[in-house]
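For practice. Any example?
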Amino acid sequence: MELRIIKNLDELKRIEKKWKELEDGSNVKYYSTFNYLKYWIEEVVNKNNELFIVILEKNTELLSVAPLYIEKRKTKIGEIRELKFIGVGDYFDIIISENGKSNLYFKEIFSFIEKNRDRFDRINLSYIEFQSKLANYILSNDKLNNSLNYLVEVPELDFSEIYKLNDINISKNMKNYKNRLLRDAKYNFEILIGNQIDEKIFADISDIHQKEQDFLNKEKNRTSRYSILSDDFKGDIYSKLIIDNENVVIFLLKNENEEIIVYKICYLYDDIYYEWNTGYNYKYYDYRPNNTLYIETFKYLINKEFKGIYDFGAGRYPWKYRWANKNNIVYEYDEFVSLNLKIKLFNKLRKLKDII
């Protein structure tokens, strides 16, 4: 077996087909697929960070891919080099075939990372699913175990035993808001998939999301709110990830004038809907339109005899658990590999901040 690092986009292009074949034979989550990560990989290169995509091969066969990069993060005490998963999402993983020798492959990759530890100060691998083979390997390893810790919950709605809408916990209050919205807005439920999602749709939902955040900032004093779809954030990457993407599904409600009331953007992959972003027209704030959209969405999925998972995304928010019937958990692997004075100071300041 041979290990090497993919360092640039040309090398990445040469393994694209094999990467996709590898993920097809695995149980990888959408956020670790090539089609999702390719735009984030371009962002790594454009930001002058360093690609560190580790691949394990045997002859011409691709056995495993670890989609990593080295972020050169500016801090008050200087630059910190952190080895991280590429991308922004709720689950990340080292990709192996379901039939592959997972522990052997993980051992080879972590040994390779260890040999290259002079290239980074910290290993910070977030959003590792607790029941993944990667988590199991780390927890079973004497050296790595202590560096893997709980990060956050991910609520889910498992449809495997849901046959009718009444099987979902829908309160009388939610139904009242739904009826009120239907009466006043005469809404229609719509679904957009793949190539139905164009630049105009993305512009419309971006505008709704930005105005919603502005409203919550000014009127509801939620000063920490911002729109991830804005150009000031990563709107350009997200437009590429959403427009004309066969894995994207947008559920939405429109009023009688064809104006969007509320939307939810999901990625659909291997019978899992990953809710990624939601927004509503702030004029409908008092109608709580998100709940109505959930009711209509889940009714649609039941009618389609969907038996997979609706994933609400990471976060222990009570409103998510009012819908969820299942709980997932993700871990974070965090290890400081450099022992120089700057890193020791950074780690102490970080722990002090957590205490405060």
User: Anything to note?
Assistant: Residues 338 and 344 are 8 Å apart (CA to CA). The mean pLDDT is 91. The first strand starts at residue 2 and ends at 6. The chain is about 35% helix and 30% strand.
